[in-house]
Amino acid sequence: MIEGQEGVSWEQWLALARACEDHGVETMFRSDHYLSPSAPFQRDALDAWTTIGALAASTSTLRLGTLVSPATFRHPSVLAKAAATADHVSGGRIELGLGAGWMELEHTAYGFAFPPTRERVELLAEQLEIVHGQWTQERFGFEGRHYRLADSPALPKPVQRPHPRLLVGGSGRRGTVVPAVRFADEYNTLLASPEDCRERRARLDAACEEAGRDPGSLALSLMIGCLIGRDEGELRDRARLLAERGYGPGADADALLARYRERGVAGTPEQAAERLREFEAAGVERGMLQQLLHDDLDQVALIGRELAPAIGT
Prior knowledge:
Layout: H1 10-23, E1 27-30, H2 48-58, E2 63-66, E3 69-70, H3 76-90, E4 94-99, H4 104-110, H5 117-136, E5 140-143, E6 148-152, E7 165-169, H6 174-183, E8 186-190, H7 194-211, E9 219-228, H8 232-244, H9 253-263, E10 265-267, H10 269-281, E11 286-290, H11 297-310
Parallel strand pairs: 1-2, 2-4, 3-4, 4-7, 7-8, 8-9, 9-10, 9-11
Antiparallel strand pairs: 5-6
């Protein structure tokens, strides 16, 4: 999982995608932001769906998706069309993550409306239903509080059947869980402990049972910070580089590494695998490993060639 708003150039995107394919990483997700939270007026941010469309044409096996696209950025018909177009370009390798949006500064800077949380969650629920409907129904109409569609054909439909994988991002609260149970394939949470994940899995299960859905049909995934090295020296070198780039408290590599060990996945591939098994035992089925060192292709190789095999995937 790459934070695209942290100054990732097109050349770096292409190198990352090719490294994933070369080293057996199955899916590359990217954030969908227009400003960097850590350096909002210094770091470049290429548009998420334009980048994914270009990468779709430049790869052959890698799955691509957003984690997650804010409901505040695009009309749902535009989002559905963008993802369906990328699905055609890729031959059926696209996943769409949806969220309510959270960074007020980027909305102000780009002129996007930033309503209160309750309304943003309503937007998310309506967008999810509209995207799902446009992808799966021959003609789709919708009358909601925020959107109205009349007899929309939304052609062409995506390549994937019944539709590209839909993810909803959230922290396990009802406002995101209920629409996810209705329309999503996966619920994605972030920066959570195994205990948090176990609790959120239980909430998803209860909501599925209440709605008459098989809980096993709604996957739980986790986006989590990842920092790995072949040995302690390599791991500390990466932590030092991250600290120098402004991530974490000051330029303290030790403090940053301690935070990764506590809240993320850090260590050798074997240690990282052991940590990920804790989340698997808590009900997590897929991990999106956040790599802030987007020019570090060697860490991509470690994830694909050593970490993934160590956890049996």
